[in-house]
Write a structure and sequence with these properties.
single chain; mainly alpha; about 375 residues; about 0% strand; globular
């Protein structure tokens, strides 16, 4: 009897097998982040938030409690994605894209994963499996995972399918963090040994004036042609202009460091709060995870194949490995392109070349979100 009362005073009596499974998943994510160093700035707070949210009885992720407050304040409102885009803008050098504008084609091609998965999610309705049906607005939100852009996925889903926000946020950020695992096999499968060794010409120098004008022109084009994407593009271009103007160094450093770090911590914990067993281990959420990895894989493959197609019509060859950087995971995808290239030639430096499609992917995913909002958000 005393043992029974002792157990009731703890959380042991309330633990479910689903919570045990999710705790194991979170510990695995922590291992990937700490031991394998797979994007620890993302995985560590997400995984720890997941651990907190699966503590029985405490209900830390409930509305009004610690993680619930963070989620409602930053993700439900859509503020955290915009804050992150400001920081991304301040840390991004658009020079490689300005110097080689045709790299925008690779960033655009990678967005094919978004629309292919949208169609796939709608097609799943024909399977008539309980819990796996998605509306058009939900399918659009799932498809955006293919852009490998967590902030954009959260921004779009909060407006089109807020009921799926937790699952899509977890999927988008998990796949962003797992870029070093997911992308290399696809890149190697679609390229030959000779293609992986292609060395690209050095990029031309880009003037300060070009770098200052670029975010302004980009914002104005977006404002007039696709106003639904203006919040994301506006935040991105503001951060970039602060950096490139050279007259607001304190603001630029704050956006790149303290501000970004604080938002990343809060965002990671908030996303992790949706790793609760009761929310995560459902057919609908598991379906989103499967569709998400398919979207990301198609986006990676589309970028690589577009680079191979460009080589058929261009005298100046493009290393197809940088096509995989057309997804929006900055600078993770560019680093992976460079790393895989150096596995075959240690003197082949692809990082700066890969940054062109990588930053084009950031713009491309925001534009894709704007298009989806324009057609489905009314």
């Amino acid at each position: 009897m005393e043992i029974s009362k002792l157990l009731e005073a703890t959380a042991l009596y309330a633990v479910t097998w689903q919570q045990i499974v999710m705790i194991a998943v979170c510990l695995f994510l922590l291992w990937l982040g700490i031991k394998k160093q797979f994007e620890p700035l993302l995985l560590v707070p997400i995984a720890f938030g997941g651990l907190l949210s699966n503590i029985p009885v405490a209900d830390i992720a409930a509305p009004g409690n610690f993680l619930g407050i963070i989620f409602n304040a930053g993700i439900n409102t859509g503020l955290f994605p915009l804050f992150i885009f400001m920081s991304v803008g301040a840390m991004t050098d658009f020079g490689p894209l300005i110097a080689n504008p045709k790299m925008a084609l690779l960033g655009g091609a990678a967005q094919f994963g978004i629309f292919a998965t949208l169609i796939g999610a709608i097609a799943m309705n024909g399977m008539h499996v309980e819990g796996l049906g998605y509306t058009l607005r939900q399918a659009a939100s799932i498809g955006i995972i293919g852009g490998a852009d967590g902030p954009t996925a959260i921004f779009l889903t909060s407006r089109l399918a807020p009921e799926l926000l937790g699952a899509i946020a977890v999927a988008a950020y998990s796949y962003m963090a797992l870029v070093p695992i997911i992308q290399p096999p696809i890149m190697k499968l679609l390229t030959t040994d000779a293609e992986r060794k292609i060395k690209m010409q050095q990029l031309r120098p880009v003037s300060k004036r070009e770098k200052i004008l670029f975010p302004i022109v980009l914002l104005l084009l977006c404002a007039f042609l696709l106003p639904d994407a203006a919040p994301l593009i506006g935040a991105l271009t503001f951060g970039n202009l602060v950096k490139e103007s050279g007259v607001a160094e304190r603001l630029s450093k704050t956006l790149q460091n303290e501000f970004c770090n604080i938002v990343t911590i809060l965002l990671g914990l908030a996303v992790g709060s949706k790793l609760q067993a009761k929310l995560f281990l459902t057919p609908q959420t598991l379906g989103i995870l499967v569709l998400g990895v398919i979207a990301f894989s198609i986006a990676t493959a589309s970028g690589v194949l577009m680079a191979k197609l460009m080589n058929c019509f261009s005298k100046t060859k493009v290393n197809p490995l940088i096509g995989s950087a057309g997804v929006s995971a900055v600078p993770m995808a560019a680093r992976v392109s460079n790393k895989v290239g150096q596995e075959y030639d240690k003197n082949n430096y692809l990082l700066m070349h890969a940054m062109g499609p990588n930053v084009a992917g950031v713009i491309g995913s925001a534009v894709a979100a704007g298009i989806l909002l324009a057609f489905l958000g009314k």
